[in-house]
Amino acid sequence: MSRIVALETSDIRFPTSLSLDGSDAMNPDPDYSASYVIVRTDADDEIAGHSFVFTIGRGNDVQVAGIDALAGHLVGRELEPLLDDMGGTFRELIGDSQLRWLGPEKGVMHMAIGAVINALWDIKAKRAGMPLWQLLSRMTPEQIVDLVDFRYLTNALTREDALEILRAAEAGRTEREAQLLATGYPAYTTSPGWLGYSDEKLERLAREAMADGFGQIKLKVGADLEDDIRRFRKAREVCGPDFPIAIDANQRWEVAEAIDWVNALAEFHPAWIEEPTSPDDILGHAEIARGVAPIRVATGEHAQNRMIFKQLLQAEAISVMQIDAVRVAGVNENIANLLLAAKFGVPVCPHAGGVGLCEAVQHLSMFDFVAVSGAREGRMIEYVDHLHEHFVTPTDVHDGAYFPPATPGTGMEMKADSIVAYTWTGRHVEA
């Protein structure tokens, strides 16, 4: 048996606010950051697990402290029993009653648990010699449901429901994996739409996105209606009347304000309105969905746990579900979220961008296609062309699609020199 010998953490921050990359109505000056963890072991294979929580600058040190607080649960433990029962490991970590009190099952500690869980999955996939998407896709339905904590879900999704979904998709797994390897998974890009960009930059990047084969772009909105109308009109002039253009308010509006604002933009036919109000306001999202129909409502990147997703789906508050690889407690909880979406027949279009989110979340969508929903139609993964060069295995996105990684692991491992160069010292390093 090998043992965990250390959780090494780093506070990594990139000065993206200097170029307004990532800017939106709620977050005008984000510095894309990673609360980074490496799980070290004494195993002869010298495999380490890498993971992170994405933040946007101040507070990244708080998130690092949350990860550090979990060291007592893991350091000194035998590794193999933890990897062999990842469902049990997940339930043990979220079940610490004193740490759970800080949530429960949400916020800094829940994301910290997700970082550790994802790091363990990184080790498990590397040991198996497979990328995470493939490792998960080749598990039996019974093995997959054993990863899920069904507590608080059974009025919407039971273990038996999940097994039925997974067994229905089992027969076509081999063919879908071949399709994925051949043609990739559809992508859309937010790169043209940051709120701090000039009209000229928006137009140039929209043209480039279409030329690169993306099937949709997204615009940030919500600060000023007249500006939004002008920018959306310019995007339509570039992209044409039928090209899908989504909009994202990043939680800026009150419920009634959201309805009025989106309807004022309806002439431009938004593909969806994303995060129109507080991510915790399930009934508010339901009211908005009724008030802006047939424009779809999308949310989920800040949904704190599987229970929020359950309620959004039960309330018919969303038509597009957006999971995030690091907002909830890691791979296990996101499998629950994917199963919920499949049960309710709602497509999943994950949130990505940031630091390494594209590298991480692609595995979940690819697993969903192969082993859960069996569908790519109406589904796509967000893509933002930022900071990929800092990862050992950057995303392979071309011709408007994510192509599956072949490197074993979760894809969350950063280059050692990038970790050193961008570790926070109280001032920014030039990007």
Summary, kept brief:
By secondary structure, this protein is α/β, with parallel strands linked by helices. It has helices spanning 60-68, 71-74, 79-84, 86-94, 97-100, 107-128, 132-137, 141-145, 159-170, 173-183, 199-211, 225-239, 255-264, 282-292, 306-314, 330-344, 357-372, 416-422, and strands at residues 4-13, 33-41, 49-55, 185-189, 217-220, 245-248, 272-274, 296-299, 320-321, 381-383, 396-398, 401-403. The protein has 18 helices and twelve strands.
Describe, in plain words, how this protein is organized in 3D.
Helices cover 43% and strands 13% of the residues. The protein has two domains: 4-130, Enolase-like, domain 1, CATH 3.30.390; 166-417, Enolase-like C-terminal domain (TIM Barrel), CATH 3.20.20. It is built from 18 helices and twelve strands. α1 (60-68) crosses α6, α11 (199-211) runs parallel beside α12 (225-239) and α15 runs parallel beside α16 (330-344). With 431 residues, it is α/β, with parallel strands linked by helices. The model has no long low-confidence stretch (mean pLDDT 96). A five-stranded parallel sheet has the order 5-6-7-8-9. It has a four-stranded mixed sheet with strand order 10-4-12-11, with helices on both faces.
> Strands of the largest sheet, in order across it?
5-6-7-8-9
Low-confidence stretches: none
Q: Give Rg in angstroms.
A: 21 Å
Order of helices and strands: EEEHHHHHHHHHHEHEHEHEHEHEHHEEEH
CATH class of the largest domain: Alpha Beta
CATH architecture label of the largest domain: Alpha-Beta Barrel
Secondary structure category: alpha/beta
Quote the average pLDDT: 96
Percent range of helical residues: 40-55%
Say what the CATH topology of the largest domain is. Answer: TIM Barrel
The best one-word shape is globular
Q: What is the number of helices?
A: 18
Largest sheet: 5 strands, parallel
CATH level-four homologous superfamily name of the largest domain: Enolase-like C-terminal domain
How many separate structural domains? 2
Kindly state the number of beta strands: 12
Percent strand equals 5-15%
- What is the CA–CA distance across the termini? 42 Å
